[in-house]
Peptidase membrane zinc metallopeptidase putative (Chthoniobacter flavus Ellin428), 231 residues
Amino acid sequence: MSLYLLLFLGTLAISLFAQFRVKSLYRRYSQVSSSSHATGAEVAQAILQRAGIGDVEIVAAEGLLGDHYDPSSKRLVLSTENYQSDSLAAIGVAAHECGHALQHQQGYGPLHLRMAAVGAVQFANQIVMFLPFLFMFTRIISVHTGLTLMAVGWGVIMLFNLVTLPVEFDASNRAKQVLAEMGYTRGEEEAAGVRKVLDAAGWTYVAALISSLAYMLYYLLPLLTGGRSRD
């Protein structure tokens, strides 16, 4: 079995495990109500109000775990379940997204760097998605050029994932702290439930970084070794 197949299977296993763990913990703690009985939307509104943020719209959207904060439009999007639920998972996710709004308000450097890189990573995603098919069916570019473009594309994605790590982990740390300070998590058991959900979600970003690094090396190493490592 080649090194690259092992690399692919290894990163795939890491990604699948990370996704399984976050979904498993989310399902578990979405069944556990917080003692405050505040919904995700109510928690988000209270956190933003406490921080003096009045220009961020909180909206509900269909789709599980599609929650996000959009700094360009200042919209905090929660899945319908997290918007309406008072579970530990819901308030943890809501507080995490508020963490991004707090980062935006305070000019958190890694967040602004990630925002600036969105255009480049979207272009890189197009390269790594379509270039293999273009080469397979037309061969209008040389192998060396194709490898270079793929290595650069995955390198951009890897750097984006690297910048994403401090953004996500900082937002989770802010969420854990503010939930405790505002009394939305009471006692170690509730705090531990939120922590498990957010920490598991954080490891999906670690898995994405590992995968993108592996793919970059897959295309970069043959260029550095004159193609010998692909044999």
Notes: Strands lie at 57-61, 68-70, 75-79.
